[in-house]
Amino acid sequence: xSDYLYALPHLNAALNATSGVLLVTGYTFIRRKRVAAxxxxxxxxxxxxxxxxxxxxxxxYYHGSTRFPEIPVVRPIYLVILFTHLVLAILILPLIFLTxxxxxxxxxxxxxxxxxxxxxxWLYVSVTGVIVYLMLYQIFPAxx
Length: 144
Hints:
Elements: H1 3-31, H2 35-63, H3 74-104, H4 108-139
Helix pairs in contact: 1-2, 1-4, 3-4
C-alpha cells in the first residue's frame, strides 16, 4: 500500500481538528458581530470538512476498515464514541447544508435558529473524529 494511503488518517485528523478550530473561531466572530469573519470561518470549516469526507472515503475504499484492538475496558468506550460520532456525522450533513443555505439566502433568523443545533453537533463530530483517530492510530494502534 502506498505511503500516501497510510498518511490519510493523519490528514483526516488534521482536517477534523482544523474544522473544529474554524467552527469555534467562527462562533466567536459572530458573537462579536464580525459577520464577514464568521462567514469566512464557516466557509473554511465547510471546505475542510468536505476535504475530510473525500479523503476518508478514498482511504476506506482502498484500505477497508480498521478494527480497534480487543482491550476489555477501553474498547466499549471507543465504540460508544465511534457510534455517537458516526450517527451525528450522518445527521449533521443535511443540517449543515440547510444552515448554509439559509445564510446564503439572507434568512438570518432561520439560519440562527438552526445553527444553534448545527454548531454543537458539527463541533462534536469534529472533536470526536480526532479522538477516534488518536485512540485508533496513536494510543492503541490497531492492525488491519
